[in-house]
Amino acid sequence: MSPSQILFADLIGEQTRAEIFATVLTAGPISRTQLAQRLGLVPSSVTRALPLLLEHDYLRESEAPPHGRGRPQKMLQVNPDKHIVVGIKIGPAQVSGVVTDMAANVLARAETPISDCTPDTALSAAASLTRDLLARAPQAADRVLGVGVGVSGHVDSPAGICRYSALLDWTKVDVAGPLSEATGLRVVVNNDVNTLVVAERWFGEGRGIDSFAVVTVGPGIGCGLLLGGALYSGASGMAGELGHLPMDPTGPMCSCGKRGCLEALAGDRAVLRHLQDGGVDCTRITDAIDLARGESTAARTVARAAFHEMGVALGRGLAGMCNLLNLEKIILAGEGAVAYDLFGPALNDTLAALAYSDAARDCHIHVDPVTHDLWARGAACLVIRDAVRAPSA
């Protein structure tokens, strides 16, 4: 590690400073009084912990105009330029990446197609992309804290291993080890949807909310959960596999090898299969969306029915999740969320019809279509969370 990285580890290694830094990062600008109240500390504890963070420019204090009479209030905020992090998203056809500052603002971005998604090919592309991205950042060697990687499927985050990914066809793949060896950097790995949960909790639609889910639609159906203010991963990192919820024992085969999963009923392939069954030759989901939004034709009718069925299946899945967890919000994301105008009405009708008591009314649906940029940005948040030793997501 560089001298600045060692200093950061030493500063954040002390629990109170770690909690202060994480809170200012996610809730700032914030006053000392507000900070103490949020952390349940006496103001003197905050005062004792701040000098080193201010002295080394990890935190900065500025004056905010007073509300009404009185003196200006000093507000704390993180210096986002102190360090940089890399975020990588590994998909079946490409690897995308970003460099961000400590506030997850994207400073550089890049992506590279891959001929196949075997571990050797994907991890080699990820290492090369990491080096290319860091070459664009000033003084990267002294400032970079590490690399965050998001992959689909069952991920053992502490071990840095993808235990199983149907989308990538991976089983027991060490992600962190080879990538760390190739780059010389600390690598943090998690399920790709979990990376979005962290990003939304800290910097997006989940800020200030203690129970929400991010549900992604597209080639697969993904889900990440924040419960009680913390990312919920389950006993072995497999929580949130909403896409493999068994819905129809006589339904179509899923990518996981089982029949009738939600993903098999609501993923991209389900929409395209519906079109093929209706006599419409369509092999790309973008073309299916265009057909459904196009002029009134027989093909348009079939396409709109396909998205309706997708919405019904998703509504059933979300109703089960709301009944079980009583969530405050569901953030609907992923590349497929751009078609919400087509499947959203059926989703909401089904959710309202099947949710128990007030479960549907308690839960707000927010649509946030995800680009490859945001996937990688979410992965970068893994490093930030790990670096500041945040007690929760």
Overview of this protein structure:
The longest helix has 28 residues, at 298-325. The radius of gyration is 22 Å and the shape is globular. The protein starts with a helix and ends in a 6-residue tail after the last helix. Helices cover 44% and strands 23% of the residues. With 393 residues, it is α/β, with parallel strands linked by helices.
What labels describe this entry?
393 residues, alpha/beta
Find the structural class using helix and strand composition.
Answer: alpha/beta
* Span of the ends, CA to CA: 25 Å
Biggest sheet descriptor:
5 strands, mixed
Number of strands: 16
* Shape by Cα distribution: globular
Task: Return the average pLDDT rounded to an integer.
Answer: 90
Note the total helix count. Answer: 15
- Portion in beta strands: 15-25%
Going across the biggest sheet, name each strand in turn: 6-5-4-7-11
Would you spell out the secondary-structure blueprint of this structure?
Layout: H1 3-13, H2 15-27, E1 30-31, H3 32-39, H4 43-55, E2 59-64, E3 73-78, E4 84-90, E5 94-101, E6 106-113, H5 119-135, H6 140-143, E7 144-151, E8 154-156, E9 161-165, E10 170-174, H7 176-183, E11 187-191, H8 192-203, E12 212-217, E13 221-227, E14 230-232, H9 262-266, H10 268-277, H11 285-293, H12 298-325, E15 329-334, H13 340-354, H14 359-362, E16 364-369, H15 372-387
Parallel strand pairs: 4-7, 7-11, 12-15, 15-16
Antiparallel strand pairs: 1-3, 2-3, 4-5, 5-6, 8-9, 9-10, 12-13, 13-14
Helix pairs in contact: 2-4, 3-4, 5-7, 8-15, 10-12, 11-12, 12-13
